[in-house]
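Lab meeting, item 3. Inverse folding demo.
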């Protein structure tokens, strides 16, 4: 269960890396050292102290680490006083949303304690953070896990109950070393960080839901992600252990009539479904999910959305299948309504289609009750179908 979210500061809350590089270059220049931004960028995600220690050794600067660090901090402070903070778009709203949802929040940054405190106060978000943690207070800065481990201790949560948001490779490595799931924020001013070890990447904080954080944590732990529920049903990602339950549904002649590409051999079908579960859900963030009865807990079918090419056009298609024993009781309408609502509100999808065999009267009635409109007839895999659409 997700209990806490830890934010890096520089590059995640404020877009400060370019200003930090300018400050460092100014200080180095005053000591007769000619370096470029590439040198400064190599320390993104680590600490300014680390950069000072490296520069003293590498360039033979006759100064103590603490004195050089003070010069760096003053140069950064002068830039902030003159130019102010450049806040990352959407981060204030996200912080407020997560706080309102009841999560514990912390900042864990390589910046100094004073810089962290001043920044969140200036942005009006200090009250939302339970703890502020600086690498200055640990032995080893990022990419070592110390900073995040201290944050976990201060928040009183475990690594398995927490997510970190980072924009740097050092930060991601630190999160993973601490055993924490990590969302990588792609910041174009963070020197082309690869973030390849992050669990998921985002380009914007706008419209991120609390559900997104919940399923990122679940997926990082190899758990099937809960999607939504209704009065009678739970809809979640399928686990590999569910495959043997769904295979008998596929083999029902009443169901199979409208399904393409079902393998006659269970072992082959299981391997296909394993590949689907392991690849499709995490790549797209959606797929065909399992539909479970709240009464029995048993799997009774699948429902969800998938990318399909229809008449040369990429579409997002609504699909479902249910155990024939559950036909005629409104389950199809119930699960499809829930999936459409989720697609609209959580995934921000604006158009969904359904390709239905022209003689499948049950599914046509369901599509109509969902508010979908007949757009055209088309042929798909040598089958005559009707395309129903809905736009939000």
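The presenter then showed the designed sequence:
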């Amino acid at each position: 269960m997700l209990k806490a979210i830890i934010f890096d500061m520089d590059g995640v809350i404020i877009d400060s890396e370019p200003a930090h590089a300018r400050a460092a270059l100014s200080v180095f220049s005053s000591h007769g050292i000619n370096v470029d931004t590439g040198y400064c960028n190599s320390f993104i995600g680590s600490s300014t102290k680390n950069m000072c220690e490296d520069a003293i050794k590498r360039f033979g600067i006759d100064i103590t680490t603490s004195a050089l660090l003070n010069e760096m901090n003053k140069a950064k402070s002068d830039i902030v006083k003159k130019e102010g903070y450049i806040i990352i778009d959407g981060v204030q709203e996200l912080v407020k949303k997560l706080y309102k949802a009841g999560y514990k929040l912390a900042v864990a940054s390589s910046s100094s304690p004073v810089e962290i405190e001043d920044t969140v106060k200036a942005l009006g978000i200090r009250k939302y953070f339970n703890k502020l943690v600086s690498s200055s207070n640990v032995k080893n800065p990022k990419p070592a896990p110390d900073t995040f481990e201290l944050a976990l201790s201060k928040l009183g949560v475990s690594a398995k109950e927490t997510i970190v948001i980072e924009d740097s490779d050092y930060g991601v490595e630190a999160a993973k070393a601490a055993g924490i799931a990590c969302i990588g924020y792609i910041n174009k001013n963070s020197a082309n960080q690869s973030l390849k070890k992050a669990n998921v990447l985002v380009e914007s904080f706008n419209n991120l839901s609390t559900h997104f954080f919940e399923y990122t944590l679940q997926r990082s732990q190899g758990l099937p992600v809960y999607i939504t529920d209704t009065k009678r049903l739970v809809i979640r990602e399928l686990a590999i252990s569910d495959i043997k339950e769904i295979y008998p549904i596929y083999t029902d002649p009443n169901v199979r009539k409208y399904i393409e590409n079902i393998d006659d051999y269970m072992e082959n079908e299981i391997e296909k479904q394993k590949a689907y579960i392991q690849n499709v859900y995490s790549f797209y963030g959606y797929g065909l999910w399992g539909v479970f009865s709240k009464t029995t807990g048993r799997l009774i079918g699948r429902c969800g959305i998938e990318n399909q090419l229809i008449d040369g056009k990429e579409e997002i298609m609504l699909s479902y299948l249910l155990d024939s024993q559950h036909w005629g009781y409104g389950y199809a309408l119930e699960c499809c309504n829930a999936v459409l609502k989720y697609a609209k509100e959580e995934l921000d999808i604006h158009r969904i289609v359904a390709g239905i065999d022209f003689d499948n009267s049950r599914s046509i009635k369901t599509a109509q009750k969902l508010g979908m409109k007949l757009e055209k007839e088309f042929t798909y895999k040598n089958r005559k179908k009707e395309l129903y659409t809905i736009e939000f």
